[in-house]
Amino acid sequence: MDEVSNKCDNIHSTSDASNKRTCPLAVYDCRDVQLNESSLQEHYTSEQHQKSLVRCTQSIMESMNGVYSEADIDMKEEKTSLVENYEKLSIITRNTETIYDQLIQTDVEMFRCDQQNSTLLQELNNIQTTNSLEKAYRDTISLNQNILRQDITMFEQQVADESQIIKEGPDGTIVWKIINVREKTYDAQSERQTSI
Q: 167 near 175, Cβ under 8 Å?
């Protein structure tokens, strides 16, 4: 509409030597005749000019509708895009919540595994301590057995030595019975034994 007003205003501002003008709505089938200043008022109220004015207004409205239609289409596309993005964000949010729940569950499982590992490590340490004590006990028993064997061997030797005494005489002399003379002589010579 401003376009029409501007064109109409240009009629008043434009002047030529003959003071004649062309109707600015000539492109909309208004009479393409030269008008002078006095006939402008009459021309503007004519049926031909009014029809041209309606066609011009319709053309402007159609072009505006095209703009609005494009804007509506753009808005619909934007709305569709926003809805799609919202749906994607909703899915991502749900997936994030699921992953968060799984992480919490994994953390709980890891804590439980750590507790079990600590318990098993403590039990292993207890078993190792028990094994060390049992080994020390077995070593002590083995040492005691060796000492007992030596004592038994010593007692057997004493018994053998006493069995070698045959008789004690009235004057205090003792008669010995010596067995394995050859071995005892060899032991004395090799210094394994101090005397026969």
A: yes
Backbone angles phi and psi of 169, in degrees to 5: -80, 165
Task: Give this prediction's pTM.
Answer: 0.36
Q: Where are the strands (E) in 25-75, listed by range?
A: 34-36
- Residue found by looking up tokens 């909703």 in the block: 90
- Angle of helix 2-13 relative to helix 47-164, nearest 10 degrees? 140
Q: Minimal CA–CA distance to 44: which of 31, 59, 55, 27? A: 31
Residue ranges per structural domain of the chain:
2-72
CA 46 to chain centroid: 81
Tell me the three state secondary structure of residue 191: coil
* 53: Cβ contacts below 8 Å, ≥ 6 apart: 4, 25, 28
**For each successive 10 residues of the chain (196 residues), what is the average pLDDT?**
51 51 74 70 78 82 67 78 89 92 96 96 96 95 95 86 66 72 82 66
